[in-house]
């Protein structure tokens, strides 16, 4: 058995020999994701994953480490830092400056101590920020590296930046509300759905509950992780401009246990113990607060999930509208992975006429591509994502904001774009920042969560896992949508897909689990389930499946 311990450490390394303009030290930063794998033989292996936040189910982790293992961690860290580019520098100044953040698990303290000892041994310096979310740590690194341009490199700076941007964004109204997009106008939507007997009808007719004094329109499930206390801190900066009720705040429950974004997404159900009411809206973070999902129930009590695809649709709509109002000819691109629901891709391309790209799984690919775009909106279906604004766009936005010869509406839209760019974490997908952005965008567009949900209907899908002898034997192309090895597997998948209506299916080796993932979409849930099972069988037979053949899901 392999037990993984996630150490929430972010390391960046100064390279004093590479001085930049204004004597700014070029800081090469390494976002290190450490996994300490206690193998069967109790050997210790330290792995690093640059930039990518791997998701490991936290409750399975051990919470304490033997001192021998801590010593090993320290040695490994020292070796890693020694091998870093630039470490050959003999500069007496700062060789390394390391930022450390901790998660809520008891093991964090000793692990942080081991890291700081390792850094000190090497003559480096460190700053331990204690309890922070993963995106907060990214913000701290990015703001430090940008020499304050991105915001103050402190938690106070983070909260001030987000809360000020939120308040400023909310202070201005969007004139046209959601009528600028005919498909969003409630009456059109309701009429269309009613005529076609569309099941979205009952969702759209649901009336939001009137606000009751002392109640909260939004309930946030903190997954018993770091997001809950950090949201409390953020709310104290927002004062009365946003009210959120927080559940699963870690005071009694276990991290991600029967709660959190993954639990909600996989099971399409509320976190344990939450009684959902029609007219209320709910959201869940994951344990380190980089994922965000929304949900609600309709009249009949049916659960509806607003996933990362729908959140990115909202953000793309909002920004596209502001660009038009500000008369700025920039392109909004939406970056997805193969797991994005086919309906969302069609809606973004055909209805909104946006540029959509499909990238391999993992936010590092999405983030890299987003940096090349004017405005890159990226979200994984699991709710991890953000929006990046290119420098060219921000320069032009600033120009229009300050140009008094431009009409007021144009300048106001440019100002809204500016505040949006300040509100959304530019370093990485951030559940707290995304939550504020979703709240502001829904409110400014005068759009309810059910309306957002009803913009398009997800194609039924199924995700399965298959264990094989060596998952690396499976290679893929076309953003992981087509298998290149083993031979014959892709043709066999395609042959199966043809037996289903409006179907697609793909398989890829997981980057975080020793599994091959199988994904299928089809016209009905039964057909998606059946196709996923057929493809899982093909993987098992043609790619060295381990154990019994996968059974059909019911
Ligand atoms: C289907 C799926 O959800 N895949 C997840 C999962 O990657 P895999 O490579 O599929 O194990 O973990 C990644 C890291 O958290 C996340 O980015 C990705 O979305």
UniProtKB/TrEMBL annotation:
User: Would the keyword Magnesium turn up in this protein's UniProt record?
Assistant: yes
Which Pfam family, any one, appears in the UniProt record?
Answer: PGM_PMM_IV
Membrane-spanning intervals of the chain? none
> Domain named Alpha-D-phosphohexomutase alpha/beta/alpha: which ranges?
94-148
- Known SUPFAM superfamilies for this protein? Phosphoglucomutase, C-terminal domain, Phosphoglucomutase, first 3 domains
Q: Gene3D superfamilies this protein is in? A: Alpha-D-Glucose-1,6-Bisphosphate, subunit A, domain 3, Alpha-D-phosphohexomutase, C-terminal domain
Q: Which GO BP terms sit in this record?
A: carbohydrate metabolic process; hemopoiesis; UDP-N-acetylglucosamine biosynthetic process
CDD domains documented for this protein: PGM3 (cd03086)
Record's catalysed reaction(s): N-acetyl-alpha-D-glucosamine 1-phosphate = N-acetyl-D-glucosamine 6-phosphate
Give the cofactors, semicolon-separated: Mg(2+)
Q: Does the keyword Nucleus apply?
A: no
Tell me the InterPro entries matching this sequence: A-D-PHexomutase_a/b/a-I, A-D-PHexomutase_a/b/a-I/II/III, A-D-PHexomutase_C, A-D-PHexomutase_C_sf, AMG1_II, AMG1_III, PAGM
**Residues of the Alpha-D-phosphohexomutase C-terminal domain:** 486-536
Which is one GO molecular function term here?
Answer: metal ion binding
Coiled coil ranges (UniProt) are none
Which EC numbers does the record give? 5.4.2.3
Keywords from UniProt, A to Z, are: Isomerase, Magnesium, Metal-binding, Phosphoprotein
Q: Annotated pathway, please?
A: Nucleotide-sugar biosynthesis; UDP-N-acetyl-alpha-D-glucosamine biosynthesis; N-acetyl-alpha-D-glucosamine 1-phosphate from alpha-D-glucosamine 6-phosphate (route I): step 2/2
> Where would I find the Phosphoacetylglucosamine mutase AMG1 domain in this sequence?
218-292, 307-444
PANTHER family, alphabetized: PHOSPHOACETYLGLUCOSAMINE MUTASE
Spell out the family assignment given in the record's similarity comment. Belongs to the phosphohexose mutase family.
Q: What is this protein called?
A: phosphoacetylglucosamine mutase
Organism source for this protein? Answer: Eptatretus burgeri (Inshore hagfish)
